[in-house]
UDP-N-acetylmuramoyl-L-alanyl-D-glutamate--2,6-diaminopimelate ligase
Amino acid sequence: MIILKDILYKIPIEKTIGSTTVAVRNIEFDSRNVGLNDVFVAIKGTVSDGHDYILKASEQGALVIICETLPETVINGITYVQVADSHKALAILAANYYENPSEKIKLVGITGTNGKTTISTLLYDLFTAAGYKTGLISTVKVIVNDTRYEAKRTTPDSLTINRYLQEMVEAGVEYCFMEVSSHGIHQKRTESLHFAGGIFTNLTHEHLDYHKDFKEYRDVKKKFFDQLPKSAFALTNADDKNGAVMLQNTAAKKYTYALKSYADYKAQILENNFTGLLLKINNNEIWVKLIGAFNAYNMLAIFGAADILGMETLELLQLMSTLESVDGRFQYLISEKKITAIVDYAHSPDALKNVLETINSIRTGNEELITVVGCGGDRDATKRPIMGKIAATLSTKVVFTSDNPRTENPDKIVEEVEAGVPAEHFNKTVSITNRKQAIKNACQMAQENDIILIAGKGHETYQEINGERIDFDDFKIVNQFLNALNK
């Protein structure tokens, strides 16, 4: 048991009713999980307000209620702590409860629209290969040294983050690489974490269903760098105009990387094909197994971060050359009939454009590029026609289909994607809402040497339809159809 006043340390408190010397058990922000002697933190969420469940939490045995608005009736024997911001209070509580584990390891956060998963995962792979005990918190998975957990969201809640970090400390982990989403920053899930460094990848049209406009989206990302301590490093992409914005008010030591601009870490692409990239990084030539200019940026960020963290250059280059692509990120196979299928997570206009331009820069032009793409439901609808235009303009054939429709009508989403197709490209598009049928159709269209891109879902092994997740794996499905064609 833990004494309440010990975990309230550093929380700005407006009012307290009851004792702060009581012994408490767990911290919960979901009233359904509250048990005897727990602390319940009432959070105002996007869907529901935890303040509506204070009475329920009390009935289930909560000993402490932390809230922004005190209930009209207070119950004798329960301690009430009023705070200005429950999200921030939860983050500080979580860090204190788990004894501030982020201060005991080198935690590096990666933020930006695209590249977060690739950079964080490959930094984990790199440092693990170098012999360090390493942790990872990503969209795809959480790894504590060698123990793997399924990830539920890009940036977990404060309690989950600190629980994993404490587990890492107990396992002797030295470095942890963590994806930091704009949602996570905005909801203060990363407050009270001590970061040894931050990496900015890029900023493009995304999450405008959540943020009111692009400026707010950018400023939320910037806040992450504003909060870095003087002891940390801030590494940003100098080729993205927002890279300089991220560095404006940070106390951290500033570093940049770029392909086109002057930077601390500079690279040139010497060769680019379906087997990998030949790069020249700060006058060192290196062959890597990843493909495309966007991965050149990712590898440059990895090189810069590892160099700043003290890895010796020769060892760093040798280990980078062994790194493999991340699941669902330009993951490809070549069938017996020499049809190339590529599965990629590209679900924003910029990501889709990057992948298609990469494929077009490698292909000869004699083969077809068949793109299967859709857009998710209950998310930023303004990007749908933009993605339709990009797919139709940069592909030779396009199959528009369903992604994760969630609670929206998938046919309506497809229509909104189609609306962006320029008139001169109408004849190269077809719409098949059923995603499995759409992939099958693309496979049947393809001839020898053709390329199929299946975009949007990448590593995901499900489709989310009306609140349910059904099994669905793009890579397995395209592999299955291409194998059937071989027979």
In short: The longest helix spans residues 293-308.
